[in-house]
Amino acid sequence: MSLSYSMWPVIVVPYNLPPWMCMKKQFSMMTLLIPGLVAPGKDLDVYLRPFIDELKELWEFGVPTYDKSTNSFFNLPAAILWTINDFPAYGNLLGWSTKGYMACHVCNEDTSSYGLRSKICFMAHRRNLRSNHSWRKNKELFNNEFELRPPPKLLSGDDILCQVNRLRPYKPGKHDDNPDKKRKRVDFELNWTKKSIFFKLEYWSKLKIRHNLDVMHIEKNICDSVVGTLLGIAGKTKDTVKAILDLQDIGIRDNLHIEKDGSDFKKHTPYYTVVPQQRRPF
Question: Looking at residue 130, what is its pLDDT?
């Protein structure tokens, strides 16, 4: 795929149509086409401003609409339900950096993470299990620790609005009063990079779900990783030397650790890897 030039379309779909109709081509309305060469990043709000202004008008004033059944006009308001986007765009739309030790916006300041040799690891998935689940007390299968903590608090839209209202003022785009260099966030700003322009919509903080992740890339990445690890495909497998060294640093999965055999190092074959003789029928 050529990456010499990219564009970012913003498409609106009416969700009050039957499921078999709302995703058809004739009901997909392209409201914006953001040009490249590079991604707009957190300045995406500059391009979204006309779109947000129209959404505010549709909510506050509505639009005259013809009702064929009664041969009359009525005022139809409209609201945006949520956005559907990939993970990089999620960070730009939300205004939360999806990198670093607090990359998870849902966990927010209660994110559990720690640094490995070359990446950051998130290991607290068991917090979301029910309190009496057997995996919570299974140390061997995880990180040699019990997990007795409750799930992270699920923040409401109003909670998030309170957090972003504490951010230092920042104008999206190129302004003389904006700092030339990337500013350093202070503790109370958490991983927020800006207050999203969507909060200009008075109902935005009241929505239960505001952003959805497109499953296309997620499914592909997970499938590539699982199949690549099972079949031991170079460049796709997650069973790498770096991963094994990380396991040794954490002190888990002793059966997978690299052993020194004289002047050589021996890497064990995991039980979940399909050996060449088993790949043919697969």
Answer: 94
